[in-house]
Amino acid sequence: SQQGEEDPQALSIQEGENATMNCSYKTSINNLQWYRQNSGRGLVHLILIRSNEREKHSGRLRVTLDTSKKSSSLLITASRAADTASYFCATARISSGSARQLTFGSGTQLTVLP
Amino acid sequence: GAGVSQTPSNKVTEKGKYVELRCDPISGHTALYWYRQSLGQGPEFLIYFQGTGAADDSGLPNDRFFAVRPEGSVSTLKIQRTERGDSAVYLCASSSQGLGYTFGSGTRLTVV
């Protein structure tokens, strides 16, 4: 089963604009991660934010986490056509035995138009 | 190796046949994971190995699915009596600290 839900399911923007994707989840988490996937094959790890962190930056990426609302957002600034991909959030739960198991959302398909 | 390697990249099999999917993780990564991804969905957890043992196999859908990692490195996902509903991309990932995963490119399994 999938814990996370990404919003929107699809997003289309012009090159240079910012893209914001949101993720909601259901259970208490140890950390939340964002991944990118091109063409339905291997996923690439983008960024990890721990449950005691509220915001994290990596290059053009900014991630926020609100554990009280069980939600996270991924902001990609100054988007490029090469950012076109599917983006997934994934949560690592706290419960013993599953702290290393990631539960993925259903993804946001981002299209950046040149 | 430099990344996680999965073979074959594509597999077409007839309903009822047995298939094996192989994953070669990053050298030194003790944790290895198998996920399954259907079209338009996020990956779904199947099984997690820590070393040679399956630490969590709660995601395996039924007893037709089995995975091994006998020497704590390469892993094989085995599916018996394949069904059309097993068609999906099977993804393998490894990690060293249980944090960010490194995924392979996946095996696209098609059961006809």
Task: State the total count of DSSP E strands of chain A.
Answer: 11
Uncertain runs of chain A: none
Q: Roughly how much helix do the residues of chain A carry, as a percent range?
A: under 10%
Q: Main sheet of chain A?
A: 6 strands, mixed
SS elements, strand count of chain B: 11
As a whole number of angstroms, the C-alpha radius of gyration of chain A is 14 Å
List the total number of helices of chain B: 0
What is the CA-CA span between the terminal residues of chain B?
33 Å
The overall pLDDT of chain B, averaged over residues, is 93
The pair of chains with the biggest contact is: A-B, 27 and 31 residues
Q: Pick out the low-confidence regions of chain B.
A: none
Structure at a glance:
The complex is a heterodimer of chains A (114) and B (112). Chain A is mainly β and 114 residues long.
Structure, explained:
The complex is a heterodimer of chains A (114) and B (112). Chain A is mostly beta strands. Chain A is 0% helix and 57% strand. Chain A has strands spanning 5-7, 10-14, 19-24, 29-37, 43-50, 55-58, 61-66, 71-76, 85-93, 102-104, 108-113. In chain A, the strands form two sheets. In chain A, strands 2, 4, 5, 9, 10 and 11 form a six-stranded mixed β-sheet that branches. Chain A has a five-stranded antiparallel β-sheet with strand order 1-3-8-7-6, with no helix packed on it. Chain A is globular and about 40 Å long. The mean pLDDT of chain A is 90. In chain B, the strands form two sheets. In chain B, strands 2, 4, 5, 6, 9, 10 and 11 form a seven-stranded mixed β-sheet that branches. In chain B, strands 1-3-8-7 form a four-stranded antiparallel β-sheet, with no helix packed on it. The model of chain B has no long low-confidence stretch (mean pLDDT 93).
